[in-house]
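User: I'm curious whether this sequence folds into something compact or stays loose and floppy. Could you predict its structure so I can see for myself?
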Amino acid sequence: MPDRCVDRRVLPSRLARYLLPALFAILTTAIGGVTWRFYAGQKELTRRAAQSQLLTVADAKVREISEWRKGRLGEAHAFMADTFAAAAFERVIEGKAAASERAAAVDYLRSICTNMHYAGAVLADLEGRPVLWEGRRFGDSSHLKSLMRSVIQAGDVVDRDFDVAELAHAPHLGLNLPLRAGAGRPIFGGLLLSIDPQDFLYPLQAWPVPSRSAEVLLVRREGESVLFLTPVRGRTDAALRLRVSIGRGDMAVVMAVQGRQGNVEAVDHRGVPVFAALRPVPGTAWYLIAKIDAEEVGEPIRRRSILLGVTAVSLILAASAVMLFLWRRYQIRREFNAQLDGRVEERMRVARELHDTLLQSFQASLIQMQAARNVLARRPEKAEQSLDKAITTAAGAVAEGRDAIQNLRFHPAGGGDLAQLLTAAGQDLAHSEEAPENPPVFRLTVEGEPRDLEPQLQDEVYRIARELLRNAFRHAHAGRIEAEIRYESRQLRLHVRDDGKGIGPEVLKAGGRAGHWGLLGIRERAGRFGGKLEFWSEAGAGTEAVLTVPAAAAYANSNGGAFSFLRRKLWIHER
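Assistant: Here's the prediction. I'll summarize afterward.
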């Protein structure tokens, strides 16, 4: 019997114990791993897409600025090469031009401002005094004198950068060129063209697609600081006013003026993490930075991550539901098989007892009656003795048969705990027909706080205890029988003892008397649910029987939460 239990129960239950949790762990890990890989991949793709967009915008803006400057310089050289206009300007400056010629010169300057989008045009003499002035005016007389000195000194077109000293007159750029009556002739004056960055340069900051944080900046280095040449989001007055220290190596603008190019992850002037693309502007001291907040770049992936998280959790919950369904179905099948096996084994035990005890007893009775018949005529008294023995044997067989049938059909009441059931069993045995004339005193004690037992296990424990008590009442010839139920934290303990005649050591060693299967049957019953049954006895010193059951198998609500049910079932099946 034990070998068959190992073959049919232990190995499958051990597989079930590890297979389903392992499968659930594998599924959960796989779902989590795939979700994380997908999230990480999407995050990297988003980061690369943002970097590519920033680099594309930065390169496009640099090309636009370079083409714009190239066009402006070309226009300046075209003005210098126009000898007809130069001759007219010379006469105007010397005061020799007629009124019509002076008016034509004014129209020429007005056309430059209107058609070529210059903010202002000034015709100045060698001292920097304005002779003609069209468009907006930037700077005062001292500013014009300074510009004219730089033109005379250079003898060529002077590309004027932003000047912080001119901040009071609004930031502007300039193309200042000398005027000559012809090649190799001396300079007689200058044409000072001013450029308002609001007309072309600042609009370049516009981002090509809608964005709440992306922008394009122009900066240059001035000593130990970085000067912003253009406005920034939230600070329209930042141009030529906002500076940051060159020591802020974590800032994108500092990286740019230090020669770094390409994509970087840094912080901006607000200290906010940004993705940025850095490019120098050829032919200038300017550096262009195209940037976007890292938070805006990560926003789409965060939205996707929420969806991914919900999907992953849903898949894990679905896998959990499937695993629980499979586990519960397995448990129901195991419980059904266990109950079916228990009933089959119970009937086999009763059949064995009927065969090995009842039938053998009747056979012995028949032999005794045959012996009485053989000696009835010659030795009536001997025949009478044989008939008495046959009657005794038959009565014992009837009692054994009744016990077997009673064990087979017994079902304890659904209500009451183990102590109540054992108390009732002791009272029934003490007043049964088989009890001696002076039945022993029965006493039941309970140690520890009573706990609810698994219904099936309580049934099994009760059957074992009732068989032990029945043996003690019937065979021990005891004066006192005690039963003790002890609820311990790690196990349930049942102790039955009597002060009767005891059991011989050869009977205990053999597992029971020859031809009797009571002790063997209750040992097998205890083994089915993971219990351990031990006996101590000596002839004339009484008998003690101790049944112990692990808490995980015995208690209905043993510690361990949801896993206690699984652990309890696995413990029982593995045993």
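Summary: Confidence is low (pLDDT under 50) at residues 1-11, 560-575. The two ends are 12 Å apart (CA to CA).
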